[in-house]
Design a protein that fits this description.
4 helices; 3% strand; 184 residues; Fumarate Reductase Cytochrome B subunit
């Protein structure tokens, strides 16, 4: 499989970035659901929080890389079997996924740095905190983060159902074009 996109399918880099981010989104969502059920005295309270923050920063960097890759490497042509409306809806959904991810990550950053402490990323580097913008920044950003997380996971589920519909009902190449290995 080629590294760059072609007119017919996504290349290995775009495909791997897509699937790595998909796994990270579901993993972070699951970890987030688990974390909010822990009390301060649970043994993994701090560890799960630190892992969630570090993975969130790694996902943010991966999103940046993915956006840059998408900008410098044109995507494949729309499938001719799809209507113009379906293609426009798909582009709008992808834009919402990108914007939702970015907003979710910004709200997570604002929660994590509201107390002025930086975010440690696996001991490799730290992301500095900006001064708090509001007395209730952690609480406000937390409510926003919660809503965005549920909105993003809902949109992601719709994205998955659409891909499966294209694959199993329409029997077109929508899903095959994003798989990291060649489908015949």
């Amino acid at each position: 499989m080629q590294l760059k996109n072609s007119q017919q399918r996504y290349g290995l880099i775009a495909s791997l970035l897509h699937w790595i981010m998909a796994l990270a989104v579901f993993g972070l969502f699951g970890l987030g659901l688990y974390m909010v059920e822990l009390t301060y005295y649970d043994p993994w309270y701090r560890g799960s929080l630190e892992l969630h923050k570090a993975l969130g920063i790694v996902l943010m960097l991966t999103l940046g890389l993915r956006i840059i890759w998408r900008w410098i490497n044109p995507r494949p042509q729309d499938l001719a079997t799809n209507s113009t409306l379906v293609n426009k809806a798909a582009h709008a959904a992808h834009l919402l996924l990108y914007l939702g991810l970015l907003a979710l990550m910004i709200s997570g950053y604002l929660i994590s740095t509201a107390d002025g402490r930086s975010i440690d990323v696996f001991g490799v580097f730290e992301v500095a905190a900006l001064p708090a913008m509001h007395d209730q920044q952690e609480d406000i950003a937390g409510v926003i983060h919660w809503g965005l997380a549920w909105g993003l996971i809902t949109l992601t589920a719709l994205h998955i159902f659409a891909a499966l519909k294209h694959h199993f009902i329409d029997k077109d190449n929508t899903l095959r074009r994003m798989l990291p290995f060649k489908q015949d």
